[in-house]
Design a protein that fits this description.
The complex is a heterotrimer. Chain A contains two helices and six strands; from the N terminus they run αββαββββ. In chain A, the strands form two sheets. Chain A has a four-stranded antiparallel beta sheet. A two-stranded antiparallel sheet of chain A has the order 5-6. Helix content of chain B is 40%, strand content 15%. Chain B has 19 helices and 15 strands. Chain B has an eight-stranded parallel beta sheet. In chain B, α15 crosses α18. By secondary structure, chain C is of the alpha/beta class. Classes of the chains: A alpha+beta, B alpha/beta, C alpha/beta. Chains A and B meet through α1, β4, β5 and β6 of A and α7, α9 and α17 of B.
């Protein structure tokens, strides 16, 4: 399967030129660029690992692309995403976030059903990948 | 005005002389200001009419009463301080009326509305009356909770940024059994929508009891989340006959792990505020369907403008509000709708007469309300929707998803692909207003659900004259 | 820019020039900086070369991306940073640099104090400069062979890499005293070979320095009296012979000191009413008080 997190995940994978164009859009708005990676694709895993601190004061995507490529090289079989942060009043949050690297095979999620009172079920989803320890999840 | 004795002698006196008209009055920062569109009966002086509205929405009655003198009545009297003829509409006047903060109960929409619109709308000397806009002082706003979640936190909970959210109402509106209903929800969410919703009159009927609906919908939501790796939701409608029933339904939704519940406007302002409080205490996103508003918001001359309703709802505390689509099947002039969206989303709304926004409004840190665009929109309009409505909006494609020739999943995928490709193009600097159709056509080459959607609905438009348009065209100066 | 299936047959250079709006920047440079005739001529040459490169590309001729890295040598106060800024604008308007901003640094911005500190520091600067021009003043301080614990060499390695492999992303301008830059380049032939254009910034002539002084005063709304003008005329050649002469900067300092003396002079006369004329005028005595005249 293919997890469809991030803003452009229903489109074909973005080329480096397309990634650069999105980063340029974010920089034109004065947003900071952050690169993150993870091997735990659970939808409520919000804190992916930081690849360096977010980059402020960039004027051009080329600088950020260096970090994107370095992260992909260091973690080729993990998810890598680019985030754009907006510090203006009323937002102070992420404005754009999209995946730029995926493991070759994505095993998907197990839906666990735990029956409780009446007809109720308590649900948990668990990524098949995380059934293996960190570092061995995507071979 | 003459001496106090003169003023309070028994008998009838024009409102303008009773102190309800004061052309020199400068509104205080702490005053609540209301702007009414007044259509006086023939022969009634506009200033007297404005004063009468001020009076009848504050302390007056139709004759002088001595008991006024037991109060600091000058403070409690609302003051009409400005009357302007409406451009291009003879016989109509914009009247600005200021109300002292002490007239209102802290944090109570029920009281605010009972005060402003509770008495005056049936007043005989007026042919028609419309509450156009209100300026709420920061001092009063601070007594309200506001949206329990707000746009920023909602996105952070869903982990979805940079694009509008996508939803759909299950169709047919009525009649599906719970199990079949849940099937529709599963298909739509799996195909790519973020949310599906109950319709406003899906509460608990013979064909589907609420508990069954909630159980099957949460099965669908969780299955779809596992299939996609995304946070998904279904707005479970907790509208019911009594508050107690509503709490029971909301609690069940929470137990089942839903991220979001919905209520209808017809439950009333008090119930809405109660649900806002409950939602915050229970980390629940609260969606409001504006059921019934069209009875009083749509005609320009009489009623309450939806922009005022939106303000009240942001104060009362809801996270989503249906606010118009512009290009869909329901009423919506582009400028007026943009004005309403500003009121929902700004941290500081600026006066914009072309959009019908009459006042600067400092929102005093109240969270932002996510507008929802729903009603007759389809993927072929994505470039128009994104241009008109921006990014912080929920686009709901009910028929546009469920009516897709290749099935519901395909319908959802078509909408999601159309949206993402349009956002990507916009970010790349393309002129999506003009190139939109080509951009969609390009994407349709590799996405057959989108191609089918465009083929099915490409000629559908809803072009009727708006009944509710702004009065100020771009050449007018902001007075 | 259209992706034509076949290249056009002819190109009009004056249209290309007009479209690029480079002439505006060149004219502004002319207005802003007095003298510097050889530098301005060189800049026009470079602009012409790059414009022709663009034209050649339009007609489908081979080119390869030209090397744009430069060195600016000359004494302090001769306009190197100002010219670097205008160069960034010219490169941007001709399409050789994507954003056209200037990041000006010295050695301390690039080099760290301990192991592992330099690479991230240099990379941070590079990332911020990408899309524009990186101006490194007194670049020779990067190289300190006598200190074996110096980390400047690491910064130089990184710079070399970027100057070679990311020519489309960044233009580097190294600046400093002519003799020291020459030594620096001889010890780092890799750097020297990547520099395409060497610009020398001559010292200003005395008459040019007078004009600069007049401009500075006018901008501050001061003026020289007849005696002031005469004093300035004598002051400049004398000052130029003194050590640590920094051209325009030294003139600026001299004028600031003259203003100080004028203020004191006026203060002595605080009894009488002073008009605009009096407050604006620098007299000869305000300049002649300088040590240079002893």
């Amino acid at each position: 399967m293919k997890i469809t997190q991030g803003t452009f995940s229903f489109l074909p994978d973005l080329t480096d030129a397309e990634i650069g164009a999105q980063i340029d859009y974010a920089l034109a708005h004065g947003w900071a660029i952050g690169v993150e990676y993870t091997d735990d694709p659970h939808p409520r895993n919000f804190y992916w690992e930081l690849w360096g601190n977010p980059m402020f004061d960039l004027k051009d995507a080329a600088g950020a692309m260096l970090e994107v490529q370095a992260c992909r090289k260091a973690h080729p079989q993990e998810y890598v995403r680019v985030n754009a942060f907006d510090a203006t009043r009323g937002f102070e949050t992420t404005r754009l976030s999209f995946i730029v690297n995926r493991p070759t095979t994505e095993p998907g999620f197990l839906l666990k059903r735990h029956e409780v009172a009446g007809r109720q079920i308590q649900y948990t989803i668990e990524s098949y990948a995380t059934q293996k320890p960190e570092g061995q999840r995507y071979e | 005005m003459g001496s106090q004795a003169e003023r309070y002698k028994s008998g009838v006196m024009p409102y303008a002389q009773m102190g309800y008209w004061d052309a020199d009055y400068v509104p205080k920062d702490t005053d609540v200001i209301a702007l009414f569109r007044i259509s006086p009966q023939d022969g009634v002086d506009p200033i007297e009419a404005a004063a009468a509205v001020a009076g009848e929405s504050s302390t007056a009655t139709w004759t002088v009463v001595w008991t006024d003198r037991l109060t600091a009545c000058e403070a409690y009297r609302a003051k009409a301080y400005r009357v302007d003829p409406v451009p291009g509409a003879p016989g109509q006047y914009f009247s600005y009326i200021a109300y002292d903060l002490d007239l209102f109960e802290d944090g109570s929409i029920a009281n605010l509305t009972a005060s402003i619109i509770g008495n005056v709308f049936g007043f005989k000397p007026l042919k028609a009356l419309r509450l156009e806009d209100m300026r709420i002082p920061v001092a009063y706003l601070k007594t309200f909770q506001g949206p329990p979640t707000g746009i920023v936190v909602e996105r952070e909970r869903l982990d979805k940024f940079g694009r509008p959210l996508l939803g759909a109402t299950t169709k047919p509106k009525l009649g599906l059994s719970s199990k079949n209903y849940g099937r529709v929800v599963y298909e739509a969410l799996k195909g790519g929508l973020d949310f599906v919703k109950d319709d406003e009159n899906i509460n608990s009927q013979a064909f589907m009891h609420w508990r069954d609906r909630f159980l099957y919908c949460m099965e669908a939501v969780n299955k779809a989340a596992a299939a996609t790796g995304e946070v998904k939701g279904h707005y479970l409608n907790v509208t019911a006959a009594t508050m107690e029933d509503m709490y029971e339904r909301a609690e069940f939704a929470k137990e089942l792990g839903s991220a979001i519940v919905m209520i209808d406007l017809v439950i009333g302002y008090t119930a809405i505020q109660s649900m806002g409080k409950w939602a915050r205490r229970n980390d629940m996103i609260l969606h409001l369907h504006r059921a019934g508003h069209g009875t009083y918001t749509r005609q320009k001359t009489h009623g309450v403008s939806f922009r005022v309703i939106a303000k009240w709802m942001r104060m009362a505390g809801v996270d989503h509000i249906h606010a118009g689509t512009i290009v869909g099947k329901l009423e919506g002039d582009p400028n007026v709708i943009k004005g309403i969206y500003s009121i929902c989303r700004d941290t500081y709304t600026k006066q914009n007469l072309e959009q019908g926004v009459f006042f600067d409004q400092d929102w005093a840190g109240l969270r932002k309300l996510m507008p929802v665009a729903s009603g007759g929109i389809h993927a072929g309009q994505m470039h128009q929707l994104l241009t008109y409505l921006g990014e912080d909006v929920v686009l709901q494609f009910g028929g546009g998803t469920i009516g897709h020739p290749q099935g519901i999943q395909a319908g959802a995928t078509a909408n999601r692909v159309a949206l993402e490709v349009m956002v990507k193009a916009r970010n790349e600097g393309k002129d999506i207003w003009n190139e939109g159709p080509q951009i969609l056509a390009e994407a349709a080459k590799w996405c057959s659900p989108l191609r089918a959607a465009l083929d099915t609905w490409k000629d559908v438009t809803f072009n009727y004259t708006s009944t509710d348009t702004a009065d100020f065209v771009p050449t007018a100066t902001a007075s | 820019m259209n992706s034509a299936t076949s290249a056009p047959e002819t190109v009009d250079l004056s249209t290309l020039l007009a479209d690029s709006r480079v002439t505006e920047v060149l004219d502004e440079l002319d207005r802003e900086l007095i003298g510097l005739t050889p530098v301005k001529a060189r800049i026009r040459d470079i602009a012409a070369l790059l414009l022709v490169e663009r034209a050649r590309k339009q007609l489908g001729l081979a080119g390869g991306s030209p090397s744009l890295h430069m060195s600016f040598t000359g004494n302090p106060g001769t306009g190197k940073t100002t010219v670097a800024l205008r160069m960034a604008q010219i490169l941007h308007r001709l399409g050789y640099v994507r954003k056209g901003h200037l990041v000006a640094v010295t050695r301390d911005d690039l080099v760290g104090q301990y192991i592992g500190h330099t690479a991230p520091k240099t990379k941070e600067i590079l990332k911020k400069a990408m899309g524009g021009v990186l101006f490194i003043d007194e670049a020779y301080y990067l190289y300190r062979p006598e200190n074996e614990r110096d980390y400047g060499q690491e910064a130089i390695e990184i710079l070399l890499q970027v100057m070679e492999n990311q020519r489309d992303d960044l233009v580097v301008i190294l600046a400093g005293y002519a003799d020291r830059m020459e030594t620096f380049f001889r010890s780092n032939p890799g750097l020297s070979s990547r520099i395409a254009h060497h610009l020398e910034f001559p010292d200003y002539l005395p008459v040019e320095l007078e004009q600069i002084a007049q401009r500075m005063l006018a901008a501050m709304q001061y003026r020289l009296s007849g005696s002031g003008l005469a004093a300035l005329h004598e002051y400049i050649p004398l000052r130029m012979k003194q050590p640590h002469f920094a051209n325009a900067r030294s003139i600026r300092n001299a004028l600031d000191r003259a203003r100080l003396r004028q203020a004191n002079r006026l203060f002595e006369q605080k009894g009488r009413q002073l008009d605009r004329e009096a407050l604006m005028t620098i007299e000869g005595e305000d300049l002649r008080a300088s040590r240079v005249f002893t």
